[in-house]
Amino acid sequence: MAGRYPIPDDIEASRNIRELFALYGPVFRWAVTFTAMLGAFATLLTGTIVNVAIPDVMGALGMTTESAQWLSTGFLAATTVTMLLAAWCVETIGMSRTFSLSMLIFLGGSVLGGIAASGEMLIVARFVQGAGAGLMTPISMLIVFQVFPVHRRGTAMGLFSIGVVLAPALGPVLGGLLIDHLSWRYVFFMAIPFAMISIPLAMVFLPQREVDARTPRFDWTGVALLSVFVLCLLVGLSNAPRDGWGDDRIAMLFFGAAASGFAFLFWESRVADPIFNLRLFTHGRFLAAAIVTFVIGAGLYGSTYFLPLFLQTVQGLKPTDAGLLLLPAGLIMAVFFPLAGWLSDHMSPRRLIIFGVALFGLSSWLMVRVDTQTPFFDLALWTLIGRIGLSFIFPCLNAAAMRPLPLELLAQGSGMVNFLRQLGGAFGVNLLAIHFSQRSLFHADALAPSQTPGRDATADALDAIARLYGQIPGAAGVEDAHALAFLSQMIWQQASMLAYRDVFLAVAMVFALCLIPAWFMDSRPPSAMRPPQRGSAPAPAR
Which of 116, 411, 530, 533 could form a disulfide with 87 if both were Cys (CB 3.0 to 4.6 A apart)? Predict the structure, then answer.
């Protein structure tokens, strides 16, 4: 049975994957890709769909803004840490069991979130969900890379990315519909069917642990130091704008992040089985791709976080309507991802990445002109341009980062790429949130002094507003106070709109700077990389 089908001679894969090729034949790589897509779709769907439910969750469970922030921060922190554990799990229990375990953890968090009776329970559920999602994501990329040859890995990542991009595209729309017609609890249940289907598929099509693979020691110290670093950093960045950068507790959090970060890197450089393998960065092309991945993660997560907020707070759209505006842009990515992946198999990935970075930067620069009257069509078009740019970035970037690595480093390379993108996203969201808060105050302070009763335009506006309030029963005698409060609200609304412009400008500048490290990425076409010869022995586990 094991020799029923010929094994492709142009793949870099472990012995067990070669045996599965012999067992299932050409259909094997497509079954594996579909399984990986299904797992990625389930975890990413929950990551985006929950965001639109936060206001309803706060009302239902009595959560404060600070505690509700942990619904996002907790998921992000758990995901970031567990991404680096994927390589250890694969070597210890095998790819099939690791994937199934990650999905079971994710399912447990989803069920717990759907039945949560308190805010604390819901936060725990988000931590559990994030742990499962972070463990699964690198495995999906790793298996897809091993079942496709070097010169077709771009196409593979393009196809795999369809599932990755459909989840964020459909998430806000599905979340809005579920909240409007059912309950916020169904947001957590939405991904359960996809996760349940992926588990039996993984048990059939994903390889078991290599028989002769060594069992690496678990890096408890590294995991503890990394967890302290991520939590201190995220909590410090999240709370600093509210508590003040000079607050003693904030200073202690940043000191803890810096100390644990340096200790983590020092430890990982000396431990025998690191979860953060510094050897990866000795490959210059991987280093360049890693820098681009971090920067793009910061710009991408930051922009996708603030665009829905702008649509709802400035444009006044409902969550469902905001999701519908983002839906065409997400669907167009599903069309361009396979095209970009195919192109990266036939030309230099560096050119495609630079083109995509420039296109997304152009989209962010166009967003700098947004205001309350910006037409829906213009916003949709500008968003569409940016998503087309992303379509040329991600398949090519993942392929370009992994191609320079030998087989024994693929597992850790996959975890590292996803870790850096997620860490960049954490930096991006929090730093842009700080920038938005500061620029809102700056613009409000600049606008307020000019709106005095001595100005004719301001006096006329106050009189008009006071007359309108005077027509409301019960408002007689306090029209002027209502008019001043309304004017103050208008000033803050204008300041927020200008701050959103500054955020989009910052994103455009980040992507412009990203062109520098992108230039140093792998410029070789895949045809210049020789596939392994038939009969060559698979590389060792490490």
Answer: 411
